[in-house]
Amino acid sequence: MTASKPLPTRPSLESLRKQAKKLARDIAAGDAGAVTRAQAHLPNVDLPLSQRNAQLVLAREYGYAGWQDLTAEVSKRLSQSLEWAVAQARRAIHERATRRENGGSPARRPRRC
Fold this sequence. Notes:
mainly alpha
């Protein structure tokens, strides 16, 4: 399955849920573009879409077989982002401690009066 649009580098589950809700609302309102999007991924489904089917359409637009696959990828990316942030914080703490041990403290800015 090919993705018609790439998943953002730092996706948000909340944002994806809101996108699915908006898709369902747009279809219920008769938006032709939204109906076309839904029919491209779920040609035999009755309209208006349920929230579950709107999530399925969104997942397929991003190239995932289903909503659970999409949310698993988002969780994985979030976990990697948190691990990266923790590693950066540890590195900064280590560098600061090393500078202090070596007698070099970071330069302080003079106070302005």
